[in-house]
Design brief:
The relative contact order is 0.20. The chain has one domain: 3-Layer(aba) Sandwich (Aminopeptidase). 28% of the residues lie in helices and 20% in strands. By secondary structure, the protein is α/β, with parallel strands linked by helices.
Length: 305
């Protein structure tokens, strides 16, 4: 994700440019909005939802959790036992990997205006990239799929705003709606920044009250602290030297945070325009470490509740 100084969708370009910016959220998308529901205790299920480019929000089906059981000798009901090693059984986790692999192909789609919770803004952007051309959208999706696998092993139902890196959209308001409609217990938006070349590190972007998200601002700050601690200890990426205060930045301009109804943060996993960060972000080993760290943070947050 580009820094605030560099935000702005690319128009009429043939491929992503270096200083692309991000807008988080969702809109009605061309093609397929894909939602992966990884059901604990069952085989994995993938649900694909198709929609048109109309502004009508895409609806998704949620998963009904197992009912409580009662004994044959008593009317007392008991909650299902959490299987050993699956502490997230019964929990729903939302993941939004920023941008998409073919966003650069349709400037008209990206530039359509959607409501971000406070004002109107463009549907999405192409995202940023390293100086060597490694794109943010690919990084974000790779981390997201590794995170999905880790959370599924822990018993969570995982909902993603996209299931591949070869599509267009969805727009930023629709991304938020997908995760809200899934009744997510917690959600995370995954990005990488396009900041100043001399700046290093990861930053946690947190919501500020806007009416829609008032109830989740406090819990999101707690989630953000868990994410920062786990990411710092688990990846080797330092806290941002240029974004926020001690790597934490309250943001009122991001649809994914403004429209959220579940505790949620956005993580800029590093700065793609810094050579040291770029080398880390481009490596599969770092992407797996990032996913493990995010899974640890989400588990810590959810099992504390």
């Amino acid at each position: 994700m580009a820094s605030r100084r560099q935000r702005g969708a690319r128009e009429g370009q043939g491929a992503p440019a270096n200083d692309s910016a991000l807008r988080l959220g969702i809109s009605g998308m061309t093609g397929m909005v894909a939602v992966a529901l990884m059901l604990s205790g069952c085989s994995s299920t993938t649900v694909a939802v198709r929609s048109t480019t109309s502004s009508t929000p895409t609806s998704i089906s949620t998963t009904t959790l197992p009912p409580t059981t009662s004994t044959s000798t008593s009317t007392t009901t008991t909650a299902p036992t959490v299987p050993p090693g699956r502490p997230l059984t019964g929990m729903v986790v939302g993941i939004d990997p920023g941008h998409n692999g073919r966003n650069y192909t349709d400037a008209g789609y990206l530039n359509q205006q959607v409501f971000n919770g406070r004002t109107m803004e463009s549907c999405d952007t192409t995202g940023t990239q390293t100086d060597a051309g490694y794109p943010e959208h690919e990084f974000a999706f790779n981390v997201a799929r590794h995170l999905r696998a880790a959370l599924t092993k822990e018993g969570a139902v995982v909902v993603m705003t996209r299931l591949d890196n070869a599509g267009l959209g969805p727009c930023i308001d629709q991304r938020a709606k997908i995760l809200n409609d899934a009744k997510s217990n917690v959600a995370i938006d995954i990005h990488a920044d396009g900041g100043p070349a001399g700046g290093r590190g990861f930053a946690i972007l947190e919501p500020v009250p806007d009416g829609i998200n008032d109830a989740i601002v406090g819990p999101s700050a707690t989630l953000g602290a868990d994410v920062q601690a786990a990411f710092l200890s688990g990846t080797g990426m330092p806290i941002s030297t240029y974004d926020g205060t001690n790597g934490v930045a309250p943001r009122s301009d991001l649809a994914g945070l403004n429209l959220a109804t579940e505790p949620k943060v956005l993580i800029e996993c590093g700065n793609m325009r810094n050579a040291t960060d770029a080398a880390m972000l481009s490596s599969e080993s770092f992407q797996r470490a990032a996913a493990r760290s995010l899974a640890q943070a989400i588990t810590t947050y959810l099992t504390r509740q």
